[in-house]
């Protein structure tokens, strides 16, 4: 069988891998749940997990990793899927391994006597159609430790959590502790392999490893627990890999796993553009890139206490519209629930990646329009998205194309049909298109004639779904204070642009469109834009905290205009020239397009909600 091995960094998991190879099975990759900090888990080793990539390199195999986010919630012996349980992290990890390496048909784990661990691995295998292989199951623990030592599996103690173990044991070799463990077993019922959480180990060498792990520096970390129940771990601060063939040492750095920033404003969240490069991953097929981006997004949200179900809007930038179906196939796996987010998608053939996207979400109440049936009413969904989402007093509409609803064929008069489709969605939600705060007009071919009352912002992508000539992205807002509208010229050394401004000064709320005539000096342009934003912000009368700590009084209130920017998109033939300065501290996308312009939307969600509560009560 072709297997993925669950590798914790400890002795049991690597020995199980070796035994699976002896049984004639084929290793495809190893998989590991890593912890951001030392934590207790009923199921997983957590201290040595950051060193697993070094072990994978020593084995000469691929590795799939995922951050351990969940907790030990379901502690019953028979496991059933439980939201936010750490076992669901393991499910997603193995699911990703199976996605990356479809040839995988089994999972190898190091369970010895723990029915708790074995049953959970079997549950996941059953859900994914895989076989569970447990080469060490029901082996005598003392004999198992002796076999490991005799066969050259060298490991040390890196965590203690049991009576009879002290900080002096951290870093000692398991081979030297077997007799001592015998005494602890007689005295306390000690689990000699550590399956009860008594200790954790780190493998340093084994016959199947091409490199030996050499610890160059470490620190003993203990807490103030009582002597009868000591607790501590060994923090590895430096290591190298000894090439067993040449005898030469190679320095090894534990790579820090980082994520793109998630921008938050109380209960709202926004991302910058997300592509594989943002997660430190290489480019690949559309399916490969889409999976890595969406998996990374899912992890970012979980880390910050959000979920994919709280996303209400997604903007997708795809390189080749011919890959639309392949992208949708992956996308739908991450949004396979009722009322998926609204979405707009266009092709930008000159971008370097296959796909990138940005999202908006909220924990606040929201209302969804999600109709999949073909009818005369409006265009049925042609993908895993909803027609619209109403959040507070704003209606966010998915990108709308000129299909005749009853036939789902492209209309002869594409402009008229697109507006009819938009009006149908707006009206069912109690809105009018004349209440448009933002209308992004995506057009292929000649620029269509769109009334200025809709506040159009023009974008020319290289392709629109179904090869249409037009797609409209409407965001409607009603019951608002009066807007002021004006134009501002930005001009300086090698830059010139015009800002079309619509803004409120009672609280932060604005839509600005920049039409760029000259941007040879991109740095000068974005700094001039920042000065205009700061000037506007200085005139705003009411400003709410943008983080919960300030709202609750735990931190002094300190806000700036960047805290309220929810959407910033730069369209340019050289978008990478803009990637600097304050633009990296806001949810921004840099889109390779023949359009030269910038779209900015900013909002104070708390002030906006307060205004509507007061005026509608």
UniProtKB/TrEMBL annotation:
GO annotation, biological process: protein histidyl modification to diphthamide
EC number: 6.3.1.14
CDD domains from the UniProt entry: AANH_PF0828-like
EC supergroup of this enzyme: ligase
Pfam families: Diphthami_syn_2 (PF01902), Ribonuc_L-PSP (PF01042)
InterPro entries (UniProt xref): Diphthami_syn_dom, DPH6/MJ0570, MJ0570_ATP-bd, Rossmann-like_a/b/a_fold, RutC-like_sf, YjgF/YER057c/UK114
GO molecular function: ATP binding; diphthine-ammonia ligase activity
Diphthamide synthase domain boundaries: 1-224
KW Endoplasmic reticulum (keyword) present: no
Reactions the enzyme catalyzes: diphthine-[translation elongation factor 2] + NH4(+) + ATP = diphthamide-[translation elongation factor 2] + AMP + diphosphate + H(+)
NCBIfam families (alphabetical): arCOG00187, MJ0570_dom
Protein name (Swiss-Prot/TrEMBL): Diphthine--ammonia ligase
């Amino acid at each position: 069988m072709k297997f993925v091995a669950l590798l914790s960094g400890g002795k049991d998991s690597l020995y199980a891998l070796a035994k699976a190879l002896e049984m004639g099975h084929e290793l495809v990759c190893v998989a590991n749940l890593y912890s951001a900090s030392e934590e207790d888990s009923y199921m997983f080793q957590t201290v040595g997990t950051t060193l697993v990539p070094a072990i994978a390199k020593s084995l000469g195999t691929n590795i799939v990793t995922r951050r351990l986010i969940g907790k030990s919630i379901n502690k019953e012996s028979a496991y059933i899927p439980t939201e936010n349980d750490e076992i669901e992290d393991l499910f997603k990890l193995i699911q990703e391994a199976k996605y990356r390496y479809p040839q995988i048909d089994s999972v190898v784990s190091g369970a010895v006597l723990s029915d708790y661990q074995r049953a959970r691995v079997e549950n996941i295998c059953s859900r994914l159609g895989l076989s569970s292989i447990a080469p060490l199951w029901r082996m005598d623990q003392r004999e198992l430790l002796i076999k490991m030592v005799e066969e050259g599996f060298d490991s040390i103690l890196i965590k203690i959590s049991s009576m009879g173990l002290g900080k002096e044991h951290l870093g000692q070799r398991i081979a030297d502790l077997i007799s001592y463990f015998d005494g602890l077993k007689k005295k306390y019922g000690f689990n000699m392999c550590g399956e009860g959480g008594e200790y954790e180990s780190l493998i340093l060498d084994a016959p199947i490893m091409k490199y030996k792990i050499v610890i160059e520096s470490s620190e003993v970390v203990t807490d103030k627990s009582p002597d009868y129940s000591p607790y501590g771990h060994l923090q590895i601060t430096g290591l190298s890999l000894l090439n067993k063939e040449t005898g030469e040492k190679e320095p090894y750095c534990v790579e820090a796993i980082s994520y793109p920033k998630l921008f938050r404003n109380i209960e709202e969240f926004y991302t910058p553009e997300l592509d594989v490069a943002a997660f430190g991953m290489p480019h690949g097929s559309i399916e490969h890139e889409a999976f890595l981006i969406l998996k990374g997004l899912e992890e970012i949200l979980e880390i910050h206490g959000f979920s994919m179900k709280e996303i209400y809007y997604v903007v997708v930038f795809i390189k080749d519209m011919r890959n639309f179906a392949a992208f949708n196939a992956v996308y739908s796996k991450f949004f396979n629930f009722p009322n998926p987010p609204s979405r707009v998608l266009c092709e930008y053939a000159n971008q370097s990646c296959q796909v990138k996207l940005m999202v908006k979400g909220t924990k606040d109440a929201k209302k969804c329009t999600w109709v999949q049936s073909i009818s005369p009413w409006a265009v049925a969904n042609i993908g895993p998205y909803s027609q619209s989402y109403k959040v507070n007093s704003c209606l966010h509409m998915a990108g709308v194309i000129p299909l005749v609803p009853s036939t789902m064929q492209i209309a002869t008069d594409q402009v008229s049909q697109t507006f009819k489709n938009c009006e149908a969605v707006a009206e069912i939600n109690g809105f009018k298109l004349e209440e448009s705060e933002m209308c992004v007009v995506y057009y292929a071919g000649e620029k269509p004639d769109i009334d200025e009352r809709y506040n159009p912002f023009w974008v020319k992508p290289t392709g629109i779904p179904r090869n249409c000539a037009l797609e409209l992205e409407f965001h409607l807002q009603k019951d608002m204070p009066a807007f002021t509208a004006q134009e501002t010229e930005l001009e300086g050394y090698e830059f010139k642009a015009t800002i079309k401004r619509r803004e409120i000064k009672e609280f932060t709320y604005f839509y600005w469109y920049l039409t760029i005539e000259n941007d040879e000096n991109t740095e000068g342009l974005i700094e001039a834009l920042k000065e205009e934003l700061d000037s506007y912000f200085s005139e705003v009368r009411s400003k709410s905290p943008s983080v919960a700590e300030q709202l609750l009084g735990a931190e002094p209130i300190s806000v700036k205009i960047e805290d309220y920017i929810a959407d910033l998109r730069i369209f340019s033939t050289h978008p990478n020239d803009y990637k600097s300065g304050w633009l990296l501290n806001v949810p921004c996308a840099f889109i390779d397009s023949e359009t030269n312009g910038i779209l900015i939307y900013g909002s104070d969600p708390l002030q906006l909600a307060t205004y509507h509560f007061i005026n509608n009560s």
